[in-house]
Write a structure and sequence with these properties.
Number of strands: 21
Mean pLDDT: 89
Largest sheet: 6 strands, parallel
CATH topology of the domain at 194-421: pyruvate-formate lyase- activating enzyme
Bound molecules: S-adenosyl-L-homocysteine, iron/sulfur cluster, FE3-S4 cluster
Oligomer: single chain
Number of helices: 17
Structural class: alpha/beta
Helix content: 25-40%
Low-confidence stretches: 1-34, 497-504
Shape: globular
CATH superfamily of the domain at 194-421: tm_1862 like domain
Radius of gyration: 23 Å
Strand content: 15-25%
Distance between the termini: 68 Å
CATH architecture of the domain at 194-421: Alpha-Beta Horseshoe
CATH class of the domain at 194-421: Alpha Beta
Length: 504
């Protein structure tokens, strides 16, 4: 397949301009829905494949909901589908490459079915490449950006009726899909993502997200709480509040401004049996108020994903992360002080523009200081139109990037293993998510600190909280023995009794 050229993407100014006037109003969209697109759906089956981050998983739920409302059926089996939608990611070159390969496979499938199959590209890659996708992937029927999902029924109708591709990649400052109750398309029925904001205003110099998702916009507190309540009613036991930079969440409800810390507190009060997590928090505005909520609310998990990206202040400055190494380290110290036993994870980029060997060593030494329980580690990948692509030189040779990445991964594996080994003998409250991948006889769940645990099934079930004693581990998983079923309230009580003598 021909590679798609990296051209025709938006500049920072263009993103802002387009958002100012872009997007359809909800009324217009409702109107469109009533225009007979439902009939065009005619019970067609849609298969949605999701790539990229948790935000895309949440968005696929919105897409599923919009399409279901318009008369489409949803299928988990691609062979049954009349419409295949890829919800795509553009974060690194290899993420896009994966999707191009997939599009190639689907093109063959479409030819085999003599055009009966419709294909759509949604999400961040759709936003980035827009019409380019149509020119170069000539079998794509719809191209829909992350803020235009309400328009999908019309676009599918139009593509079907005209035989021409239909595109909507408008970004909207208003669109938060807040009134849409997402369909939990691919869910385990235990944990769910709840989107609390969209877009990102940070403009880190390496990152394409502000271009693919536009400006930051927070969703109303009321609609978030009602979605969470609904999930509790349906039996969900865990929610992860999602945004690119959740700490900058703010919403004014009834004249009162609600911060992210306040929102987490309110969500945690929806049910004492609901675990609350969130992702991703930017270190620049992770407040004491938020750390206090972790400490005070037993069902707010003792785990924070706090991406550092790099361990050297000069590189952090080039990345426009707006904090220094020292400030980041002080924050992790503060988190450990206010939330004893807190588990920290991170994202790290190896081989960013101009990175010297000493600067790379600073990343390793920062990892030694923080001792993350888990990390997502990447080689820097230049993304068109970002500040780094325009102004900085991607000058670290590929083999050096690779070697530095491997050193980072090796160190992290060692830390993860040591952290897991220190769990042996401890008892954790595990929320059972489902059957272990390796054996039907075993269950898989997570600790409050987000560590994966596998143990014998016995009579325990998905959605149970189970006290599990940790007996063994690998660098990625804890292996344990179930003691008894519990509740979060009960677990919080016994944990504080166990802690009491140490405090006294
Ligand atoms: N909003 C989140 C990150 C979202 S993207 C935050 O600021 O923490 C997820 C991760 O992808 C980033 O944390 C970063 O580590 C990585 N990433 C983003 N752009 C990248 C690029 N151009 N090359 C390599 N990794 C990148
Ligand atoms: Fe990208 Fe930075 Fe925004 Fe995260 S905070 S999405 S890395 S621009
Ligand atoms: Fe990828 Fe878009 Fe998420 S670029 S990481 S799917 S916000």
């Amino acid at each position: 397949m021909e590679p798609i050229e990296d051209i025709d993407v938006l500049s920072e100014d263009e993103v802002r301009q387009r958002e100012a006037g872009a997007g359809s109003t909800e009324d217009e969209n409702l109107d469109r829905m009533k225009h007979g697109y439902d009939e065009a759906a005619g019970g067609k089956q849609v298969y949605i494949e999701t790539y990229g981050c948790q935000m895309n998983v949440a968005d696929s739920g919105v897409v599923a909901s919009v399409l279901q409302e318009s008369g489409y059926g949803l299928t988990q089996d691609q062979d049954e589908a009349d419409v295949v939608l890829l919800n795509t990611c553009a974060i690194r070159e290899n993420a896009e490459q994966k999707i191009r390969t997939r599009l190639g496979m689907l093109r063959a499938e479409k030819e085999k079915r003599e055009g009966e199959l419709m294909m759509g590209v949604l999400g961040c890659m759709a936003e980035r490449l827009r019409e380019k996708l149509l020119e170069q992937e000539d079998l794509v029927d719809v191209v829909v950006g992350p803020d235009a999902y309400r328009d999908l029924p019309r676009l599918l109708y139009e593509a079907d009726a005209t035989g021409q591709a239909a595109v909507n990649v408008e970004l909207s400052k208003q669109e938060t899909y807040q009134d849409i109750q997402p369909v939990r398309y691919d869910s385990n029925g235990v944990s769910a993502y709840v989107s609390i904001m969209r877009g990102c205003d940070n403009m880190c110099t390496f990152c394409v997200v502000p271009f693919t998702r536009g400006r930051e916009e927070s969703r109303s507190v009321t609609t978030i709480l009602s979605e969470v309540s609904q999930l509790v009613e349906e039996g969900y036991k865990e929610v992860t509040l999602l945004g690119q930079n959740v700490n900058s969440y703010h919403y004014t409800d009834d004249g009162t401004s609600v911060s992210f810390a306040e929102l987490v507190d309110r969500v945690s009060r929806v049910s004492p049996e609901l675990r609350v997590r969130y992702s991703t928090s930017h270190p620049k505005d992770c407040t004491d108020e938020l750390l206090q909520v972790h400490h005070e609310r037993p069902n707010v998990c003792n785990y924070i994903h706090l991406p550092v990206q790099h361990g050297n202040t000069e590189v952090l400055d080039r990345m426009r992360r707006t904090y220094t190494r020292e400030e980041y380290l002080a924050l992790t110290e503060r988190a450990k002080e206010l939330c004893p036993g807190v588990s920290l994870s991170t994202d790290i980029i190896a081989g960013f523009c101009g990175e010297t060997e000493e600067q790379h060593q600073d990343t390793l030494s920062l990892m030694e200081e923080v001792r993350y329980d888990h990390a997502y580690m990447f080689k820097y990948s230049e993304r068109p139109q970002t500040y780094a692509a325009r102004k900085l030189e991607d000058d670290v040779p590929e083999d050096v990037k690779q070697r530095r990445l491997e050193e980072i991964i090796e160190l992290q594996n060692q830390h993860s293993k040591e952290s897991n080994e220190s769990e042996i003998g401890r008892v954790h409250t595990v929320l059972v998510e489902g059957t272990s991948k390796k054996s039907d006889e075993q269950l898989f769940g997570r600790t409050d600190t987000n560590k994966g645990v596998v143990f014998d099934r016995e009579d325990y079930e998905q959605g149970d909280y189970v006290k599990v004693r940790i007996d063994d581990c690998t660098s990625s998983t804890l292996l344990g023995t179930a003691i008894e079923k519990t509740t979060l309230e009960e677990a919080a009580r016994t944990d504080s009794i166990t802690m009491a003598p140490a405090v006294a």
